[in-house]
Design goal:
Helix 2 packs antiparallel against helix 3. The protein is α+β, with helices and mostly antiparallel strands. The two termini are 19 Å apart.
């Protein structure tokens, strides 16, 4: 497979992600500053022999790629916090609850309150936030019971320890604390609807630095890559 890295205007990130502007899967009450860099990371529809790769295969390959991108950019002074928003249904957000802690009960997490009083079928949305190691992040992304390729939006943040609890606590996308978090985040990584690709936003890394880190990580994992910046 061929991994492509394209730089784009950070102002287009929310609309390009195709999750809509409102609700828990929508954008945050935050405007990325002009010095932020945005990249789309995707798997091309054809492999090195120009053979077509179907959508399901590309989605399956993007799942492990999410963790590799996070690992490439995570620095020693940062922690990983994952936010997942979507319907509280089997095969969607409910699959995340098996990842809240380790088997020994270790872990930090928070999730939104939810209610459904009517008997008739209706979608109930929820939000789950977890502080994860890279190993646990990889397990979460690889879990087919979590609907990353359906209606669950995943966003990953790298933040300093003092911001972890703040980020776990934030439920509302319009919370006044978003600037405090995102102004100091090392990066934010978000899935595009349908797991067609992922978006990376960062103020910490220049385009050259981000590209070099990603390519070094991916080539070390023996994944053939090409990039466009």
């Amino acid at each position: 497979m061929i991994v492509r890295i394209n730089q784009f205007d950070v102002a287009q990130a929310q609309s390009n992600a195709a999750w809509g502007d409102h609700g828990p899967r929508g954008g945050f009450d935050y405007v990325w500053p002009a010095d932020a860099n945005a990249f789309e990371i995707l798997i091309l529809e054809n492999d090195e022999q120009s053979q077509a790769l179907d959508k399901r295969f590309r989605q399956s390959q993007l799942r492990p790629l999410i963790g590799e991108v996070a690992a490439a950019l995570l620095e020693d002074d940062q922690k990983i916090v994952v936010r997942l928003d979507g319907p509280l249904q089997s095969g969607e957000l409910l699959g995340v609850f098996s990842h809240l802690t380790t088997p020994e009960g270790r872990g930090r997490f928070a999730f939104s309150e939810a209610r459904k009083f009517q008997r008739e079928p209706a979608t109930t949305a929820g939000s789950v936030r977890l502080c994860l190691s890279l190993e646990r992040l990889a397990a979460l992304c690889g879990d087919q019971a979590v609907g990353l390729d359906q209606e669950v939006r995943l966003r990953i943040f790298s933040v300093a320890e003092e911001l972890v609890d703040v980020l776990l606590d934030i439920n509302d996308t319009e919370d006044e604390r978003w600037p405090e978090v995102l102004d100091h985040a090392g990066f934010m990584l978000s899935t595009v609807r349908g797991l067609e690709s992922m978006h990376l936003m960062t103020r910490r890394f220049s385009p050259a630095d981000a590209r070099n880190r990603l390519l070094q990580r991916l080539t070390s994992r023996a994944q053939p890559t090409q990039s466009a910046m």
